Amino acid sequence: MAVVQWSLAHRWTIVVAWLVLALAGAAAAAQSSSRLSFAFDLPGQPAYETNQEILRSFGSGGSNPPLIVVVRLPEGGMSSRAGTDGLRRVDDRVRAAVPGARTASALTDPRNASAYVSRDGRTTFVVVYPVPDFTSPDPYATALPALEKSLAPVRVDGAPVNVTGSTVLAAGGSSSGNSVLAETILAGVGALVVLGVVFGSLLALLPLLIAAVAIPTTFVGIYGLTYATTMSTLVQNIVALVGLGVAIDYALLVVTRWREEKAAGRTNRDAVLVSAATAGSSVVFSGITVAISLAALALTTVPFLRSIGLAGMLIPLISVAVSVTLLPVILDAAGSRLEWPRKKPPTTTSRLWTAIASWVVRHRVVAACAATAFLAALIIPVFSIQLGQPQAAAQATNASAEARAGLTALTDAGIGAGVLRPTEILLPADERITGTQGITVVQPDTWVRDGRRVVAAWGPGDASSSAGKDTLDQVRAVAAQTPGAQVGGSPAEDGDFIDALYGSNLWIIVTVIVAVTFLLLSRALRSLWLPVKALLLNAVSLAAAFGVLTLVWQEGHGSSVFSSPATGAVTLWVPLAVFALLFGLSMDYEVFILSRINEEYAAGHSTDEAVVRGIGHTGRLVTSGALILCLAFIALGGVPQTDVKILSTGLAAGIIIDATVIRGVLAPALVSLFGRLNWWVPEPVRRILRIRPIRPPR
Asked: Whole-model pTM?
């Protein structure tokens, strides 16, 4: 490669340039933290715009669900003097603790008093919309402690008053976690152990060095982007940990091929050049493929996902640049000395993976059927996937005793969890919502400002459940019949989120990404069938990852590993993020494996021999790289946010399934089954795509 030859001829320029960029990146990472956003905005979507109007007019509410103060009433309920006096004391303390909050209860909203009291008359609640604090990921970080402190000494009929709410329950399930630096160090230590086993020498440090240059350099780009667009706080975690895995993967591939060429008797300089021409080319194609797949996020209309896509596109491109410039310079200058304490580089062919590939080729039909059955079992749960925010009952498992008691009281009294996330309706002050059979609607006279009225509506079911979504549909239908009504609130914004992410535009973006990836792979692999197979297996890999997400987080089979309860739903944006990241990362391994199989086939080996030799050379490399990425994603699961834990689960499961069952068994079985057809390209297509044919062995 010309780039490598230029880098070797100007080695000090390369070293100094990357050193300066890495140091600048370290400074940029520290500075960019204060410029990153906690917001999950949806500009242009109806519910988001309505929520912004509610915030402007009333100073609270909108996409920020209320706090709910739950009160146990004495015998006689609100008809008794003790019940009325007890609720009045609670109301007074609430208003004193959170000045400026929008509140409503059976006393302050007598027109709708029955909506705040359970059927048995013994449980009531106060709806509290504090003014949100947008400088923190928790909008009620200041209001909640003040409210809890104020209500702590209050007793009604001898029972304490409990504060609960969607944000309170969520905070209880994510109160602890690791910093970005701690996660990266944890993942780096795990990667060093794996690399130590792979290389058994100081070469184990080289991929980590490449990552240590690529990651901070990426933050230079991110810092610049903060001046051009909104960048989410999540990019710190994703860049650090995905960057660690990707950079190590690329360096691992190049170093392994360099070592193989050295063992074959080449001089050090020749080994560097050959590894760059072979493994380096695979790295370039892989990096471009990963960047293209992340365009699915970068092209969305959702700012925080767009920021993840933009930052994510920088990761593979910078990792490729470091791997094809700085890495060859280091190998050329000090590669042989880094083989210490090994006296002689070992063979890079894995006996284990050679044996596995030989078995797969001999029993290709059985292997393909067994792998397909296993993957089908993982994919089946996808058909019951539920997108939404975590359900209250699931979050309550790790919530504080007070928040859990409040939710239990609401549920036992028949009020339900729906009140924790009401749908809000903004309408002219002289209008009221009517015809809401089966839905609880409160329209306090105190919730009127600047000629606008805000109304809260909910059903007994959790807003993320099927019943909750039916309630939202009913509310929207009723609002459509009310002049000037606009639907907002957290549930409505969730619905718009799904439409914005998974609407027709996404499928156009995905189709373009798949088409571009197909063209790139066709050129790289000099085949039509191999790219089609790679894309189909990617789809299977993604479906299996989504199935694991559903099993672990929605149904709760293993979420305790992350010290978190099952959520009852998969976070709205996670499937798209998993697709964008996993599509490219898993394609890395396909390119690594198929490029080597192509090389062996072009060298004169039969299809079966090429498969066995290709897997033998790349199997250990792919599983080591996948294990390192998996460790990085497990470290990512150490963050406080439950939605990031869900993302890390999907990525870790997808990478492991892809690198073992799919690329280690199903892919070689299919290549073996199709024989010479793998490299058949019609002459017209070959001319259009400028594909050089691979001549079959005699």
From this structure: 0.82
- pLDDT tens digits for range 256-281: 899 888 888 899 999 999 999 988 88
**By C-alpha distance, which of 115, 117, 126, 128 is closest to 78?**
117
Q: What region does 429 belong to: left with phi over 0, alpha with psi -120 to 50, or beta?
A: alpha
Cβ neighbours of residue 285 closer than 8 Å, sequence gap 6 or more: 520, 521, 524, 591, 595
Between residues 304 and 151, the one the model is more confident about: 151
Rounded to whole angstroms, the Cα distance separating 220 from 214 reads 10
CA distance linking residue 640 with residue 624, whole number of Å? 28
Question: In this predicted model, what pLDDT tens digit does every residue of 24-53 receive, in sequence order?
Answer: 999 998 888 888 887 778 888 899 999 999
Which helix (H) or strand (E) segment holds residue 123: the answer is: strand 123-129
CB 440 within 8 A of CB 457: yes
Between CA 174 and CA 176 the distance in angstroms is 6
Tell me which long-range contacts 258-261 makes (C-beta under 8 A, separation of at least 24). 258/331, 258/335, 259/199, 259/203, 259/345, 259/348, 260/347, 260/348, 260/617
Among residues 212, 228, 219, which one has the least CA distance to residue 27? 219
- Stronger pLDDT, 473 or 182, i.e. the higher one: 473
- The residue ranges of DSSP E strands in 434-540, in sequence order, are 440-442, 448-449, 452-458, 486-489
In this predicted structure, the answer to whether residue 693 has a pLDDT above a threshold of 90 is no
Spatial separation of the C-alpha atoms in residues 103 and 11, rounded to whole Å: 67
Q: Helix or strand or coil: residue 248?
A: helix
